[in-house]
Design goal:
Blueprint lengths: L10 H13 L7 H26 L5 H15 L8 H27 L7 H13 L3 H16 L16 H17 L11
Helix pairs in contact: 2-3, 2-4, 2-7, 3-4, 4-6, 4-7, 5-6, 5-7, 6-7
Length: 194
């Protein structure tokens, strides 16, 4: 077992993103603002993808992988203080989307990919669970879909067209970032100015 090549993610990196969002005028209808928020989300998903890949490649063991995931989750899901309510809401949306990314990765490392249904079937079933106000089941089902994405199955985002907007669609948005990260785990540059 070789040592992991680098720290997967740091509190400092997360804080740099938050500082950028504090400094900029954020308008979710504006393409650059939307891209900044998506880059923030993708950046975390890439770190998660790298941990799962390091685990799959045998560079780190299960315990190390779960510890690394836990460390990032603590940093990213900690409540963020913003003076601006709209920005606080937008960050909360990113954090909500990422909850499922962490659950999926934890489940994948601990138990491997689920194999009882396709990604779409899990997502649609999660939508039904959310309609029935069973959010624990909904999260579990979306996380199960996430394990399949980590394992290489494709998520077709059209599946969300059949869902009411809510937590499941937010979580699936996170899985979309995870899918991109698994297929192309290139680091999003924090200073990536277009």
């Amino acid at each position: 077992m070789s040592a992991p090549p680098e720290e997967f993610y740091s509190d400092e990196r997360w804080q740099n993103w938050l500082d950028r969002i504090r400094e900029e005028d954020i308008d979710p209808e504006n393409e650059d603002s939307a891209r900044l928020l998506l880059n923030l989300q993708d950046d975390v998903a890439i770190a998660v993808a790298k941990i799962v890949t390091a685990y799959d490649d045998g560079d780190i063991d299960e315990e190390e992988a779960l510890d690394e995931l836990s460390d990032i989750r603590e940093v990213v899901l900690e409540e963020v203080e913003f003076d601006n309510d709209e920005k606080a809401m937008l960050i909360d949306g990113v954090q909500t989307s990422l909850v499922c990314v962490f659950y999926s990765a934890d489940q994948y490392v601990a138990e491997g990919p689920t194999d009882e249904a396709s990604v779409e079937e899990y997502v649609l079933e999660a939508g039904r669970a959310e309609e029935g106000e069973d959010l624990d089941s909904a999260l579990g089902l979306v996380a199960a879909a996430g394990t399949r994405i980590i394992d290489g199955e494709e998520l077709n985002m059209e599946v969300t067209e059949d869902l009411e907007y809510g937590l499941v669609t937010e979580w699936v948005n996170g899985l979309d970032s995870l899918q991109s990260a698994m297929s192309d785990p290139e680091v999003v540059e924090e200073e990536d100015e277009e």
